[in-house]
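Rotation project, supervised by the postdoc (A.L.). Task for the rotation student: set up a whole-complex structure prediction and record inputs and outputs verbatim in this book. Inputs entered:
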Amino acid sequence: MLRLEPRIRPSALVELATPAIAVLATILAGLVLFAALGKDPVEAVRIIFLDPLFDPYSRSEILIKSCPLILIALGLSFGFRAGIWNIGAEGQYVMGALAGGTVALAFHGAGGPWLLPLMALAGAIGGCAYALIPAFLKVRFNANEILVSLMLVYVAGLFLVAMVSGPLRNPQGFAFPESRIFDEAARLPTFGDTRVHIGIAVALLAVFVAHVVLHRHVFGYAVRLSGAAPRAAAFAGIDRNRMIYACLGLSGALAGLAGLFEVAGPIGQLQTSLPVGYGFTAIIVAFLGRLSPIGILFAGLVMGLTYIGGETAQFLLRLPAAAISVFQGMLLFFLLAFDLLTRYRITRTRSGPA
Amino acid sequence: MTALLEVRGISKSYPGGVQANADVSFTVEPGEIHALLGENGAGKSTLVKIIYGLVHPDAGEMRLAGAPYHPQGPVDARRAGVTMVFQHFSLFEALTVAENISLGMEKPLRTSELASRIRKVSEDYGLALDPFRLVGDLSVGERQRVEIVRCLLQDPRLLIMDEPTSVLTPGEVAPLFATLRRLAAEGCAILYISHKLDEIRALCDRATVLRAGRVVASCTPRAETARSLAEMMIGERLVEPPDHRFEPGESRLSVRNLDLPADHPHGTTLSNITFDLRAGEVLGIAGIAGNGQEELFAVLSGERRTAPDTILIGRRPAGRLGPNARRRLGLLAAPEERLGHAAAPDLTLAENAFLAGRVRRGLDRHGFLRFGRIEAFARDIIRAFDVRTPGTDAKARALSGGNLQKFIIGREMLQEPSVLVVNQPTWGVDARAAAAIRRALRELAGRGAAVLVISQDLDELVEISDTLAVLAGGRLSPQRPAQALGAEEIGRMMGGGFASDRREPADAAS
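Outputs recorded:
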């Protein structure tokens, strides 16, 4: 019978290289998958992974896709390190977009340079408040934050539909369930003539700040200690309940901000098709980036690449849309599998249980 | 006559280059009580695991009653008549004694037959045991009896006992010894692992001393003193602890009528705890694990909160304060569990120094870590307490138990606490490090601090304490001068026999 045995000394080098190995393994498995779908596998992989890198338009689109992924994953990584599992970033993303978008709509025709910061603030508060619901239920009733936050995703989605079909619906929109197009004052400035918006700069800044906080500030220390040794954290005077509020609140705020950037950036209005799964994909990004801010930056770019390459492959090769989700799922699967194998080895036991 | 067990040239190293046993040879005669003696990490456990078939040696051979003996697993060992009682029992609390014993048997008997055999064996050997009681209702001593009876039902030729008395009250030790002597008289050999030298001198016929995986001596314990045995174990002369005299100062820590509910199903409820700890005093809290030590530690360190007035640090009500607020008031603490409670295994020593040293050592400014100061603090601890480590960036996990314990004790002591609370300061620590830790605790009290030591090691408490109290069933006995107490009286108190109020002792112990 096969058994997992911890390795005495997991190789630090291998541990660092696992994400790269996982990406390679995903590409290999992708070759098999695309061949099975009757497509030229090498061409498919080239279209998904290489072509976007050599095309300026695709490169800018990768940045746009990475922005929400990086922001959300950064927030999630703090909680994941501390053993607090926010699985509902998708819902917080929607609520942030709604809160910030509502501000944009409320000041329709009356905007100014103060409007965007106000929207960003509202977006962060919206996402944060929504994430504090599972936090409160966990602290007060010991309710599982994984389940509560996940279920609140669906509530948020339905709430969005209700709002854009009702109070926030565009009065001139022929009853389509979507809001007015935001005023120019409520749209994120872009770089040059690309669609790349200021949110990317904010995401980069967030990576830097998160890195500093994680490694140089007491809060980052508390997060790392809570995850590494919960009892030692209590002994160090770290209040578990405050940690739960802080980690969920922070990840909610960043997810909300990401949602607001999305509606104030590429989309430009509130619409029912807003939730496209960034909140869930960001979980993969967080782990692919080893829960470290710098790692998440790169992981977010890689994941953005698979989105853009996947879209191209969809219309060039007529790949089904689900293939790209399978692709992203495989990435997480391989990452977790290789993680396990760097820490454990498989042994064959001869006799029965000792 | 042929030896019962003959071990020849056994070597075993673990991946990572740890040589647990190197060319170990010794023999055990039938009917002999043979002690295996050595510091932690000397290789005792690996050796008995090899004999019991749990670990396979790299080299060497064993013979049992003259025949080659190479157990592939515990099943082989038991078939050959070798059984073992572990320090940590493997019993199911929700099952009865008979059911538990039946679980370990290769061919389970019918319950009635098994029960009568259990009764017979337990009467023969003076191990009172009711086969139909739930294990969850039994005391630790009774649970150990279940494990022993389980072994005896297999008619063993060799019984291995791993630190059997570490879980017993002094009153429970004597009956255990009587049982073991009786077994030996009937021809069963006993391999007895312990670090309690007085016990070994009282019980064992011969002793094999291990140091760093090798056999360094073989002796007749009765012909040795506890001190000479200890010196054989560590390979150098012991330094005496300094003589201490207790001059009580003002109260530094007062606990008044403290009640604390258990916070998990296996926890203990503390009731009506009252004591005074004065400057310059070392107060020892004796008692068997699970009688409220964890809870008492947590409520003193600030990890659990209580009514403000029940705990006074100096004159300040502190029951509601968290660990860092109490640190600011001068109360520091060192938990029992080194890895995971006192220190985070995967964090470096510097980060672990920050863990408890932040507020008193000013290791952060506006929340930002001051790496220079943190490094310096960690280096100070390493130097002052002779911690053997490659550097401050070594992970806590990489240190041996004794070295990490010195680091943890040092971390608290270098902050010059006015009150220090330690739980099991020398648990699992080798003799030399233990002596150093005890000396440091005494010196701290000598400088005027108040020290509270929770320990299960009575010898240790008698050695370092000025006053002693016993924790039993979540209640604390009156505080008494340590010198005036005999082992028998302490043992009686450990059983809860100090209840001077009108409550039933049985009620208090449940």
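Student's summary: The first helix of chain A runs from residue 12 to 36.
Supervisor addendum: The beta strands of chain A are 2-6, 344-348.
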